[in-house]
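Input set for joint prediction.
Command: fold jointly, output tokens.
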Amino acid sequence: MVLRKMEEYLNSLRENDKHKEVYYRGKKIRSFLEHPTLNIAAKHTAKLFEFPDRGYYDETMNEEISKYFKVPRNSDDLLNRHTLIYNNTVFCKGVFNISQAIGSDALFSLMIVSKIVDRKLNTNYYEKVQNYYKYVAKNDLALAVAQTDVKGDRSKRPSEQDDPYLYLKVSEVKKDGIVVNGAKAHTTQSAVAEELIVLPTRAMKEGEELYSVAFSIPTNTKGLKFIIRPIEELEGNTSSIISKEDYEFETLTIFENVFVPWERVFLFKEYNFSGYLANLFATFHRFTAISYRSALTDLYLGTTSLLAKANGIENEKHVRDDILNIILYKEIMRMSAIVSALKNNYQENIAIPNPIYTNIGKLYSNENFIKVVASLIDVAGGIIATLPSEEDLNNDELKAYMEKFLKGKYSGKERIKLLKLAKELASSSFTGYLLTLMLHAEGSMEASKIGLIREYNLKDVETFVENILK
Amino acid sequence: MVLRKMEEYLNSLRENDKHKEVYYRGKKIRSFLEHPTLNIAAKHTAKLFEFPDRGYYDETMNEEISKYFKVPRNSDDLLNRHTLIYNNTVFCKGVFNISQAIGSDALFSLMIVSKIVDRKLNTNYYEKVQNYYKYVAKNDLALAVAQTDVKGDRSKRPSEQDDPYLYLKVSEVKKDGIVVNGAKAHTTQSAVAEELIVLPTRAMKEGEELYSVAFSIPTNTKGLKFIIRPIEELEGNTSSIISKEDYEFETLTIFENVFVPWERVFLFKEYNFSGYLANLFATFHRFTAISYRSALTDLYLGTTSLLAKANGIENEKHVRDDILNIILYKEIMRMSAIVSALKNNYQENIAIPNPIYTNIGKLYSNENFIKVVASLIDVAGGIIATLPSEEDLNNDELKAYMEKFLKGKYSGKERIKLLKLAKELASSSFTGYLLTLMLHAEGSMEASKIGLIREYNLKDVETFVENILK
Amino acid sequence: MVLRKMEEYLNSLRENDKHKEVYYRGKKIRSFLEHPTLNIAAKHTAKLFEFPDRGYYDETMNEEISKYFKVPRNSDDLLNRHTLIYNNTVFCKGVFNISQAIGSDALFSLMIVSKIVDRKLNTNYYEKVQNYYKYVAKNDLALAVAQTDVKGDRSKRPSEQDDPYLYLKVSEVKKDGIVVNGAKAHTTQSAVAEELIVLPTRAMKEGEELYSVAFSIPTNTKGLKFIIRPIEELEGNTSSIISKEDYEFETLTIFENVFVPWERVFLFKEYNFSGYLANLFATFHRFTAISYRSALTDLYLGTTSLLAKANGIENEKHVRDDILNIILYKEIMRMSAIVSALKNNYQENIAIPNPIYTNIGKLYSNENFIKVVASLIDVAGGIIATLPSEEDLNNDELKAYMEKFLKGKYSGKERIKLLKLAKELASSSFTGYLLTLMLHAEGSMEASKIGLIREYNLKDVETFVENILK
Amino acid sequence: MVLRKMEEYLNSLRENDKHKEVYYRGKKIRSFLEHPTLNIAAKHTAKLFEFPDRGYYDETMNEEISKYFKVPRNSDDLLNRHTLIYNNTVFCKGVFNISQAIGSDALFSLMIVSKIVDRKLNTNYYEKVQNYYKYVAKNDLALAVAQTDVKGDRSKRPSEQDDPYLYLKVSEVKKDGIVVNGAKAHTTQSAVAEELIVLPTRAMKEGEELYSVAFSIPTNTKGLKFIIRPIEELEGNTSSIISKEDYEFETLTIFENVFVPWERVFLFKEYNFSGYLANLFATFHRFTAISYRSALTDLYLGTTSLLAKANGIENEKHVRDDILNIILYKEIMRMSAIVSALKNNYQENIAIPNPIYTNIGKLYSNENFIKVVASLIDVAGGIIATLPSEEDLNNDELKAYMEKFLKGKYSGKERIKLLKLAKELASSSFTGYLLTLMLHAEGSMEASKIGLIREYNLKDVETFVENILK
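tokens >
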């Protein structure tokens, strides 16, 4: 039984903190758990280890390991994975808990690609991936994945940039491993993870061998630097409810002469497989995305429905349409997750979520999250932008005024709680942050469109029409 | 020459502050100018007095007064008013400067309604409005307008609420004036104005006489309490650029036994005119809204266009479509303002913006602002959500990494500045606040729809069709 | 083995025609098969009997019967039903083949409701439904369903109308049965079916007993009159391709003193169950709708994709977006069908498609079909509106000009065929007809919205939020 | 006084018909007026000469000429032109009357471009254009304009096509003129016009001199062939109301060794000006488009509003939203026309409609016309797709049933008339035809987007932002 308890993870984090280079608001951080804001991000990851019934007995390893690491072999495994991610997100108040989800997304795609590369090029990556997988699963580790390079001038390829390190690049090949330099953006919960998996961000071509690299390293590896975004949803909103207990951070992750031993290198120079690995990870991770996003939507749906009642407008037709709008958003994502699981691609003994349905769900989410926010705003009213502060609400004299005058069909006290939550969801820095995430996390809309059209079989419908025209 | 200088306004504010009851984050504020955050809101209003070429010679008053107080007599006056509001907003970096705009919106609607009421009911409101108007114009005052009641249970009328004061109500009629109780929401820049005009929020009917009231009072009147919303766009975002110099606040404005002398009472018990006054003010103020919103859009348009270049994606078709989307948003609003001015309704010697076109512009803005934000996010990339903090950027060591790695087609330094602005506009608490404002300020979408269908002449097109069918 | 051959159906139709009262373009029709236009509608239904592999062995009946009549007992049965309808539609060139689909939709809902009514009110409807079902299945009949009443003034209930028969009503109760009067709109393929099932259109209440009626009759019953809509998609477009071989018609179906024997009466006076029956049928039939609509979409998708190539614009980004738009339309409908089947409601031993997902699919179809058409138009170009006629294309001299000048990347000949099809789909009377169908067939958007919000469980997400706020 | 009467035009047409080569449905047409269908198109153009108050006194010509030929010198002229086109469209029951509108659009753009070319290249086109203009105006002629080439493979330029004549090309240069070959698509009302103006469809470059040509010819010029599209909106819908009296046709217009004398050649080989001429004409003609489209919308708005009442659903909120949707469509187009006129570009002594606002109006129309149709369908109900035919309505016996059962809040007789019109507008071949027109006529959406982004001044807003960031 290898499943860790929350406390074990926290102890590991305390230990790990000593050797890590982490910056927050211009200062080097010594301990996550002692930091007034960042401790919440750490505790969020810690909740992973408290999630009920999170293990399963794995026959190959002969151990009970985390369900996140269960390699999907069929539709049911993928449906269970969808439910796991959904439920774990609900468990964390609608906030995704990324660490083992993204880590396993990366591991599954590495398993598939390494097998193919080995077969074609006679390498031995699969064994290394498999060893790493076992190490991770048996130690029940928290993982982060760094994929998106900082990219520089988007009109140029990696090798054409003014600076060679705007995409992560191998700068030196040593006997016992490689040295890399560069930076990755948006690495979620990186510095509270124990391990970091690094994947290429895109397809590469001849001449870009040194950019075609995948590997893993401990997060306290020398030369790794994490610069954490400001947690404004909490530090900037004293009345926040969700972010006070659950949020995730991203870092700009800098690799300065970072050494990776060979046994941790999973792709090196095989530029023909860089794009496939990137896409495969994207598919697994977008499946994860539509799963957690449906749970996030529950926050919007529940708050909108309750505020409609609190305001006394639950019978207005435009309010009904707002609620339906959010229902459609949630359920179209769930439908796409379910069908993605059912119609999975099976390759190298692993069930891959169907990229068509996964991308449809993600694209729908990209394009329509703004309407979910707008629906909540429409129902909540302008007051969520002009709501007095938490400090006012904690001042006894002012509180009395507020409870008197912010009464709706519900009491002032109850309605104010709902308004605070609605503000957090729809009229705060959390909102702004989410708007961007919902558009760009797990790939931009263009990325999903490219993926969709590439995978879609147009030949069948073309033949259908050609036969009619014969 | 009555036009005040900035310093005169600031002195008046200092004086005024002594007697005002203002709260911010649970504490009573003694001086706006000495407050680290709130001084910016005061200075924002002060910029009104620095706006170049802001006066005109008024023949009736035989003085040079603020152009905001020029009563519109024809299309040109309204077109000039549109341009004045647009330019003044551009002057304040895209942030509306409300004080004399909303004040004059209220005064013009009071002028029209008071004349009609006087004629029908033999009252003498017009003279009182006129006197007040001259007082305000000659003293070049900063004004605020409180209209939206807190409203309680939206399914009930004012008189049906559990608490009689969920709509502002006359609680006592005295020999020399009236006493009012209640609260108004969303009073913009209230506590930095010198005068507050109070208008009814909706149509009233028999039995609601005591809710049918309009008046004005100095902002330091006894019993008035202002609770300011938290300025999170500044206090919660250390890298803010716009909000550091320009923002506006709203207050929950509480009236506790506030006395209003008769000469300042502009409507009292004439419930039949309450709705007309509310709508007329809404029309003037929505015309103001589409004027300032076009200027606000310039921020989004310019930032999107520059970031497209900075990222090296200015030739991508989806980027072109994002830019076009913002152009359409801006220009449809401007078109509606222009046509609203051209096809104005002329009544009681005042040119009223055409409510059809004003509402079309506002409705388009309500429904499409989210797409403007999404367009900027699409072009800017996910980095605006995960951008390291201002404190990191001020740390010399980290700064060097950031400028190296956040380079695009533009240098890291230049691109970071654009990203900071893009973050403020599209991924911050300012964004969340704006989303709500753009949906609810100057009336909800439902309010505009109701206004539009009420004013639109469907008879003509029905007759057109009936003639065809004859 | 009861499965009929096409010829058996056609013979039955010939016989049936003798006693039926059918009108087309102002004239009484004696024979479908001899009518130059209407014979196609008959042959369309006849194709039902040619669809390959259409039977299954039913254990209860100890016979091979049509798969349409297989009562769904679980998810797989519903998934198979979805596939059956999709494939049969593809078999008919994208045109739905309604007869046994709608008939079984009605039968399944009658089975459920009759069982419930029997249990609650001690009636014996279920046995009658069951007998009728066996009769229909064993004789492999073609069925039509009449549900939508003509409704008169939509602001009034059935019993409040000026004319009592604007909803179908029992006008006389006899010893051996009932007599009904009224009219039903939109009865698809009614007059080529052998049997007509009549269902109530909505919930009824006390005092509306005589409107609360369900029954079945042969289509050649005395007093039944069918007025067929003009088949303009064929008669008005000489270059039509699809409609020349497959289309369906609707009738205004008039009931003039139509007698129904008791054994064919399935609901009578039980007004409390009228709404449930109407909704249940709607659910089954909407599931059918999203199944055939995905197949119809194949026509649009294939034509758009081929025309993009024929025009030489297949690499334009807006063309890719048009194609993606149609893909999303199709796949969201398919996803909703699949999930609807998986998450079915099981009641009275029958698997009912989940009304939430069924309505989501239908609503998405209602709202977005216009965009499918617009996407095809965008890719095809204006030429589909101004294309010379079939007669020009059959004139040798003109044909040569046309093939020369309508050349694209494909030859003139090939491109013209595609343009003719694109015209039929997107710029013809078929288009107009379809636009209305896609909005109103199987219920309006309002109907789906009402269904969705009624069935959706908001309590769970409300509780989720309430727990967070505790 | 040169203004012709209807009869004079019709006589001219009779004369003209003798020498023209016109095909309809595979047959050569000898006389428009004697053709059962095509006479309506001729009479439609004839209505141009009956439009009340259609002349103005032109000082230069010293004659009263058609207002269409009034060269716009300022905003008022353009506003009057907008009103002229709008009113003339209303006069023709919502159907555009193109002949002198498009003709003058072409003449104005030729006036401007010829002057510029003359100045730069020392040619003498302007005089020829001016002479032609006077000839046309003084004879009050009906004009057509052929611009869109058939284009072949859209991925290739004119000179790269397999067939050199897929863009109209000069095939021979003679002493007295040029000979052209090729074909133009979509020439509206070509064969009922007396003159045809031919313009280039796009920008040309070096090597494409022979494609860079503009000229005019009488419609009965030898070698010109007109193939008219089938008039399905009339021939395919016996219950049509509008099309029975007013419609316009388009032709595929073939040029087979057509000779043009030098005095009628307005551009030849000046490839640098081909694009400017094409765009300038597009701008004038799109201004015309948004003017006639607002009048067309009146049909939809009036019919929707009346049918809402006829159905008894005028108080439903979704019906209100449908009506508002159509109002927005109409008024945004009108706003764009008005602002386009006000903010015109003045060049070569001619006021050109502002291309930004013109394109915004047109683009809005392109994207939203489908929603106008959908709104009408939503309100009208499914009955417009399944409405019995005109022949049924003319059969006395059936008529009685129909009037009884199609009763709404209005009588059956009145409602049926509205339903017939609604069918024509939203569920007929006219609908399909219009959908394509509203997307492609006067240029595709891509064309408008390209025009918009090219003309828009982004520099100002970029500078605004750059100044903020300084």
